[in-house]
Design goal:
The complex is a heterodimer of chains A (286) and B (764). Helices cover 34% and strands 23% of the residues of chain A. Chain A is of the alpha/beta class and 286 residues long. By secondary structure, chain B is of the alpha+beta class. Among the domains of chain B are: 3-60; 128-287, Methylamine Dehydrogenase, Chain H, CATH 2.130.10.10; 457-763, MetI-like (MetI-like fold), CATH 1.10.3720. In chain B, the strands form 8 sheets. In chain B, strands 6, 7, 8, 9 and 10 form a 5-stranded antiparallel beta sheet that branches. In chain B, strands 1-29-28-27 form a 4-stranded antiparallel beta sheet, with no helix packed on it. In chain B, strands 2-3-4-5 form a 4-stranded antiparallel beta sheet, with no helix packed on it. The two termini of chain B are 20 Å apart. The chains are: A alpha/beta (286), B alpha+beta (764). At the A-B interface, α3, α4 and α7 of A face α14 and α15 of B. Bound molecules: adenosine-5'-diphosphate (ADP) and magnesium ion. Adenosine-5'-diphosphate binds at residues 6-7, 49, 54, 72, 74-80, 92 of chain A.
């Protein structure tokens, strides 16, 4: 991480970095950019870690069966926003959320929402691959087992199908019962993807899935993302501008808890509306 | 990298070099200190083990013998009488093995020095006037005797030795013969007899087998006369009729003068009760040999006179005693059978220090037997001649035998712990008077004649019982608490709960044992039923409360921190406890018909001891639970958050995540925790010492006590004479304890390594 430390309050007020003027504060409440067939709607979302505000009045729509990329400098709140979608922030003490997120038109913060059900619908792949210390088979079958599926043949099918989807089947089909810890970093990450999609989620969240991988493994994951978008709505956080440009259909540029610009990837990279975005994507700061 | 830093700090080359050198020096120094420390500890442990081990070595040593002297005694023993006319009846030895004495048919007791060339020290001739003595009886080895003459008189006498220190430090042993009154038992020569005097009244009892093949029981009974003066009445009972014409080969009366044993040439063993000396009562008649053609050739007593040694013409040696085995009535039975002697059994001499005895045969072989372990310990090859006298020295460290050629051999015997071998220490042993072979620990008894019982099995059993039950009570509590604290509670709560539980482990176990034994044990007995009900009550009410909590509207419950609801449970648990206590009386009268102890006893034959396993379990829980809890909690907390996040992100709830992901990932640590707790429970001393009755029973019942290896050391060591068998057995106990803990820890380490490898985290 380039600036992983939490930002200070005063810095937040006068965020003049590398001589670049801060993004002009948008007039609140800014309407989110409309997208075709939106699946996830974020409205006026603010998030506080204790007293510290990490997200400010986020409004956005995430299109169905498209890849949406979140880019922005470290600490700007990409992961935080991502974790809002499956309410993983609930685990963090002192985390408070205001605003609204709805998936398929249904709020995820409603008290009648079953959080485990939500998380089944919103899968997640983490920055650091985190296979369970179990066999490859058990990793992929985990979600199904949690859901109460016990039949071996069903589990077998699920494992095979999703390992194939994750382009891992050919590499591991002869050692399904070996520990997942024996896989390479790239394989582990693909296993985590297989594990996540085995639950058949609507949305797949990926938080910098390639940041710890070598270029070849990264390329494989990128191919996989392109492949999977036919089936899933994918939100991917990335540090790598090229990656965002390669895999995503929409891109959101975030800066200090705010979405500076959100548009089609083409537009963001070729013809951004904001000077700030242009500076970032052309590598003037970061 | 570090040199880069110093560069940045702007330190010049020279001091940089110096610093590097200094750092290297420290590094090396530290390495050596660490090495010396580590190696030192290992060395110390090995040294401790070594020294403890040395103390136990004599327990396993097989006995050794050394032939100290062989002397031709013909001339000396026959002095004063024509050769061949004097018959030696038996010999005896003093405690220090400096003198021995012979008793012969002239009625003389002759004392000699026990050395290569024995010197005659003194001759004492019994004052009773007679033409010669026909038979002899040894009422107690080396001390109490009687001889019978050809006119039917029996003369008892005692031989004693006194140690005197004359002029300086020279030790002198002074022998003494004390004669009793001669008793007229029969009108004819007595071929064989037994003599004892009643320990209470001193009244003599003689059973004599006469030249005319009659068996006579003679008893004197003191009775108060009309005017208060004491009168002695003599009863003589003829028992010949009951023998059915068999030829008597041995007569023995025990030291209580209550039992008469007679063996016959047709292989029978008769047992009379002499409880009423005026009328002996035949209790049993048993076949003592495999076939009636084989004669019983010799009978004798073991120390304590409760076991009878029986030898037959075929060389078989066996030990018999009265037991209730196989019936209500106690009766004489053959208990131990020993490896036989080559020829017909001729003589016995019992040890005065234990259940050992010597047996010789007609061709001069002597064997040393140990009754407790039913083993033959040593052989003393003979010279082909039967023995005229055989004596086991009073300290059981020597054997003196004189054969029919008047050749005297004296052996030194190195056998300090004859009663311990692998079987007696760990196996089932049929002890004297028991109904069947058992594992028994009973190290000391009231008298010197007590048969020590050194089975370590009940103690190991006690240790395991205590540890296993403790673990059964502690493991679920400790691990569930660890899961709860590490996975479900807010970290700020955890920061309070954890140190508090850890403080529990710091409580001295003496205090816990004291509280458990003196406060908890009586209390538990009073509220026993409530204690049984309490777990169910607590769990039931808790579940009910949690169910209610879930039914509360989220708008209310959502305002609390996750896990805060657990605090309301403290109150619920309190209510459950109070409710259980309140139900104690009613339930006891309802279910257990008023008194649970009687109920348990009548229903399950379970005895309820006040200081029982339950009490120990509670007290030990205080030491074991914190250990398991802390280590498990650390293990659970150190499972990477990303793993549980990964599980939660797949839609698992917190319980599923904890049980399926976190618990297995932490299993190595939890396993170690359990094993360390187990090791602690095994080694715990003060609590098991104070909170149990320390009775070495072998019983899995939860409601009685036990004696653990560790507590046994604490209980017995103050009573154990240095170098004695008990002392060494206690050292053995210590080694056993060490071995168990060592084994457990090694096993724990090996298994937890394997678990660790299995659930290894990928992070480098
Ligand atoms: N658990 C947390 N507690 C407090 N502050 C946090 C926590 N997680 C992230 N933050 C802060 O929130 C801001 C956004 O972080 P994050 O979403 O991780 O940024 P990004 O993923 O864009 O690098 C950062 O300032 C970070 O320090
Ligand atoms: Mg991040």
């Amino acid at each position: 991480m380039l600036s992983g430390e939490p930002m200070e309050r005063q810095e937040f007020r006068a965020p003049e970095i590398n001589g670049v003027a801060p993004a002009p504060k948008a007039k609140k409440p800014e309407k989110a950019k409309p997208v075709p067939d939106p699946l996830v709607k974020v409205e006026d979302l603010s998030l506080f870690y204790g007293t510290k505000q990490a997200l400010q009045d986020i409004n956005m729509n995430i299109p169905r069966r498209q890849v949406t990329a979140f880019i922005g400098p470290s600490g700007c709140g990409k992961s935080t926003l991502l974790r809002c979608f499956n309410r993983l922030n609930d685990l963090i003490d002192d985390c408070r959320i205001e605003g609204e997120i709805s998936i398929n038109g249904k709020s995820i913060f409603n008290s009648d929402v079953d959080i485990t059900d939500l998380r089944k619908r919103v899968g997640m792949v983490f920055q650091k691959s985190n296979p369970f210390p179990k066999s490859i088979y058990e990793n992929v079958a985990y979600g199904a087992r949690i859901a109460g599926i016990k039949k071996k043949s069903v589990l077998d099918d699920i494992v095979e199908k999703n390992l194939k989807r994750a382009a891992l089947w050919d590499e591991v089909n002869d050692r399904l019962n070996d520990s997942a810890m024996g896989l390479s970093g790239g394989q582990q990450q693909r296993l985590c993807i297989a594990r996540a999609i085995a639950v058949e989620p609507d949305v797949l969240l990926m938080d910098e899935p390639c940041s710890a991988l070598d270029p070849i493994a990264t390329a494989k994951i990128e191919d996989l993302v392109t492949e999977l978008k036919n089936k899933f709505t994918i939100v991917i956080v990335t540090h790598n501008m090229q990656q965002a440009a390669r895999v995503s259909d929409y891109t959101a540029f975030m800066y200090i808890g705010d979405i500076v610009e959100f548009d089609t990837t083409e537009k963001i990279f070729l013809n951004p509306a904001k000077k700030h975005t242009e500076d970032y994507v052309s590598g003037k700061f970061g | 990298m570090s040199s880069d830093q110093t560069d940045e700090l702007g330190i010049e080359e020279g001091s940089k070099q110096k610093q590097i050198r200094r750092r290297k020096l420290y590094d090396r120094l530290a390495r050596h200190v660490v090495f010396v420390g580590g190696a030192g500890i290992i060395f110390c442990i090995i040294a401790i083990l070594f020294f403890i081990g040395i103390e136990t070595i004599p327990l396993w040593k097989s006995p050794g013998k050394k032939l100290e002297s062989v002397s031709e005694m013909e001339d000396r023993l026959a002095s004063g009488a024509p050769s061949g006319q004097v018959r030696i009846f038996d010999i005896g030895v003093d405690e220090y093995r400096e003198q021995f004495f012979t008793v012969d048919s002239l009625g003389s007791v002759r004392f000699f020095t026990l050395e290569e060339e024995p010197k005659l020290l003194k001759t004492h001739t019994v004052s009773h006037k007679t033409t010669g003595y026909a038979s002899f009886y040894s009422a107690r080895t080396n001390t109490s005797y009687a001889i019978a003459d050809r006119e039917g008189y029996v003369v008892p006498f005692e031989v004693s030795f006194r140690v005197e220190f004359r002029e300086g430090t020279e030790r002198t042993i002074v022998s003494r013969v004390t004669e009793g009154d001669a008793l007229r038992v029969a009108e004819e020569p007595i071929e064989m007899f037994a003599y004892q005097s009643s320990p209470e009244t001193g009244a003599p009892v003689v059973v004599a087998y006469t030249a005319s093949k009659r068996l006579l029981a003679y008893a004197e009974v003191e009775e108060e006369g009309f005017l208060g003066e004491s009168e002695t009445e003599v009863f003589t009972t003829d028992l010949t009729g009951e023998l059915g014409g068999a030829v008597v080969t041995g007569v023995q009366v025990d030291s209580e003068a209550e039992n008469l044993y007679v063996s016959t040439a047709n292989g029978k063993l008769y047992h009379w009760s002499l409880s009423d000396p005026s009328s002996p009562e035949l209790k049993s008649m048993l076949a003592a040999t495999a076939d009636p053609g084989v004669a019983v050739t010799r009978i004798g007593f073991l120390l304590g006179h409760r076991s009878l040694i029986v030898g037959d013409a075929a060389g078989n040696v066996s030990v018999w005693f009265e037991t209730t085995s196989g019936g209500e009535e106690s009766r004489l039975a053959k208990i131990h059978v020993f490896p036989p002697l080559p020829a017909a059994v001729d003589r016995f001499s019992a040890s005065q220090r234990g259940r050992g005895f010597l047996a010789s045969d007609t061709s001069g072989n002597i064997s040393l037997y140990q009754a407790t372990s039913a083993a033959k310990q040593l052989d003393f090859p003979g010279r082909g001649k039967p023995y005229a006298g055989l004596s086991f020295s009073p300290k059981a460290n020597g054997v003196v035998a004189v054969d029919s050629d008047m050749m005297l051999s004296s052996y030194y015997l190195d056998n300090p712990h004859p009663e311990t071998n692998f079987r007696t220490l760990f196996g089932k042993i049929w002890y004297e008077g028991y109904d069947r072979p058992r594992y028994v620990w009973q190290s000391t008894g009231g008298t010197d004649e007590f048969e020590p019982k050194f089975s370590l099995t009940p103690l190991a059993y006690g240790t395991l019982k205590g540890a296993i039950y403790t673990m059964i009570l502690s493991i679920p509590l400790a691990i569930l608490a660890a899961i709860c604290v590490s996975q479900f509670l807010h970290p700020s709560i955890r920061n309070v709960v954890k140190p508090v539980i850890e403080v529990m482990a710091a409580l001295p176990s003496v205090v816990l044992g004291f509280l458990a034994g003196l406060w908890l044990a009586p209390l538990l007995e009073k509220i026993f039923v409530a204690t049984l009900v309490m777990p169910f009550m607590v769990i039931g009410l808790t579940l009910f409360a949690l169910f209610l909590w879930h039914r509360l509207p989220f708008s209310f419950s959502g305002r609390f921190r996750v896990g805060a609801e657990l605090f309301t449970l403290v109150g619920v648990i309190g209510i459950a406890v109070v409710l259980s206590l309140w139900l104690n009386g009613p339930l006891e009268s309802l279910i257990f018909a008023g008194d649970f102890r009687d109920w348990f006893f009548s229903m399950f034959d379970l005895r309820y001891d006040q200081r029982n396993m339950l009490v120990v379990g509670f007290a030990m829980g205080f030491t074991v639970i914190p250990i398991i809890f802390t280590i498990s909690e650390d293990a659970l907390s150190s499972v990477p958050r990303t793993l549980s996040a990964g599980s939660l992100a797949l839609g698992a709830n917190r319980w599923q995540t904890a049980m399926r992901i976190v618990l297995p990932a932490a299993s190595a640590g939890i396993f170690s925790a359990v094993m360390i707790g187990f090791g602690r429970a095994v080694g715990e001393t003060m609590i098991v010492l104070m909170a149990t009755g320390n009775t070495p029973v072998m019983d899995w019942s939860f409601f009685n006590g036990f004696r653990a290896l560790s507590a046994n050391i604490a209980v017995e060591l103050p009573e154990a004479p240095h170098g004695g068998t008990l002392y060494r057995v206690l050292f053995l106990t210590a080694i056993l304890l060490f071995a168990v803990t060592f084994l457990l820890n090694t096993l724990a380490e090996v298994l937890s390594q394997r678990l660790r490898r299995k659930y290894a985290q990928s992070d480098a």
